[in-house]
Amino acid sequence: MSKLEHLLQPITVRNLQIPNRVVMPPMGSNLGNKDGTVSDANLAYFKRRVQSGAGFIITEITSVHPDGTASPRTLCVYDDRFIPGLAKMADVVHQQGAKIAMQLHHVGREGYYLLQEGRALGPSAIASYIYRVKPREMSIEDIQETIAAFGQGARRAREAGFDAVELHAAHGYLLMQFLSQHCNQRTDEYGGDFAGRSRFIVECLQEVRKQVGEDFPISIRISAEEIIKDGYSVEDMQSIMPRLVEAGADIIHASFGTHGSPGGITSAPVEYEPGFKVELARKIKEVVKVPVIAVGRFTDPFMADEIISRGDADMIAFGRQHLADPDFLINAREGRSQQTFECLACNQGCIERLLFEQGSIRCAINPETGQELEYPVDAAKKSKRVWVIGGGPGGLTAASEAARLGHEVTLFEAEPETGGQVTLAARVPYKEVYGRWIEKLAARATRHGAEIITSQGVTREMIQTGHPDEVILASGARPVKPDIPGINLSTAD
After folding, report:
1. Catalytic residue among 45, 173, 232, 434
2. Cβ atoms 239, 222 nearer than 8 A
3. In whole angstroms, what is the distance from residue 435 CA to residue 423 CA?
4. Are 64 and 165 part of one and the same domain?
5. pTM here?
6. Separation between Cα atoms, residue 139 and residue 326, nearest integer Å
7. Do 341 and 391 sit in the same domain of this protein?
8. Domain assignment of residue 158, given as a range
9. Does residue 247 sit within a domain?
């Protein structure tokens, strides 16, 4: 078995030494304060993530301009008043020995709130893929103001103690909108062919370099291919990469896709194999000599180590895995990978919650994520006898958490095995990870001290005789047939 000697090797970018090649990439949390400042919830969330041991942490999107803010709780850096809170975030990361980059962002035409207010900007007045509303076409003055905003945001990041910045030029936001012929149909110097459409990004990089100086690393996150009909290809991106490096890019963060890409590929579901887009990082490495970060549903540090050893990438981004189990790297280093909870790539607590519910970040399999300030750590003052009825994921999690906090826990499951309806889901092709999730839930509950009894239902008499202090009912739901005319007709009818 690999000892992770490649993944855990330091890497130097300009004057910055990053302790290993593991990257926590930007992931929106919606935990910020409503005025765009850093909240205590932000700090607690980052502190827990950094305990994984990742060497390079990149913040969630941080808006460089009031007219480029994605949502009311987006972190912001368009004014000096944001520096003190951002400095606290940098300190939290540094206390764990990691390095931190701020991701500089402008939402462009893909901002729901700005579109509703008539404030959204884009390279051309072409409707958003998602919201079907047109932005205002940016004037030359708007472009120059935005370039300056990226530079000033980078300057503030450095003043706040960050180790680097990253320009977000991926996933359909403003910088990428200039690259795409679907968004940019300008006829001036910021439009035309692919080289012309890249001019805005180049000038943003140049301004950022001017503001931060020569010794400060700059990363740029790109969609190496657009993955949409008639979109640009990785070969197109190869043609401008040397120019981006010359303009100031020290790291290329090679992601993929845009708003409108089919199959949800930018937040790939479980049907996509881990590391399924490594070839994009390899193709970018063919034309530049700066470090390249690979992206693509990574969950396994040992796989990441092999990719680096082959020279396909220099660093590996573990995104949603940091939400599902922030101890994954510690477990791998200490020889207990079997305890790591793999990300299910279900997107329910992260992507879908943020986009469709406008809620703050959660994880379907990790109750701590996004609730770090409320999550109990210390043992209960008084130990109780707790019965959990039902061995599905809810019951197993409840049993594990109660036992972790020092209670005497017994879980009863009426079926011969734990897992509830998830055992059915695990039989579906590509969903085997759900079965492993249940196995690890049961193992963790036992490890914490809970007793699991299967093939045993619970009756009222058992409870009266056993006298548990607390009973947690996690037996699931029963199907209800609604009283709708025709509900009992056969399919033949």
Report:
1. 173
2. no
3. 6
4. yes
5. 0.94
6. 44
7. no
8. 11-356
9. yes
Q: Which residues are CB-neighbours of 142 under 8 A, at least 6 positions away?
A: 121
Give 38-88 pLDDT, tens digit per residue: 999 999 999 999 998 999 999 999 999 999 999 899 999 999 999 999 999
State residue 2's pLDDT score.
59
Helix axis angle, 140-159 to 83-94, nearest 10°: 50
Distance CA 45, CA 64 (A): 22
- Binned at pLDDT 50, 70 and 90, residue 188 comes out as very high
Rounded CA-CA distance 28/325 in Å is: 17
* CATH code of 238's domain: 3.20.20.70
Can you tell me the distance from the alpha carbon of 358 to that of 113, in angstroms, rounded to the nearest whole number? 11
Told to judge if 173 belongs to the known catalytic residues of this protein, a careful annotator would answer: yes
Distances in Å between the alpha carbon of 313 and those of 102, 137, 306, 309? 22, 37, 10, 9
Neighbour tally for 252: CB within 10 Å: 25
Specify if 370 maps to a domain: no
Query: Domain count of the chain?
Result: 2
* Beta carbons of 329 and 51 less than 8 angstroms apart: no
Q: How many residues does the chain have?
A: 493
Digit-coded pLDDT (tens) for 473-482: 999 888 888 8
* Rounded (10°) CA dihedral 472, 476, 480, 358: 100
118-167 pLDDT tens trace = 999 999 999 998 899 999 999 999 999 999 999 999 999 999 999 999 99
Check whether residue 284 and residue 416 sit in a common domain.
no
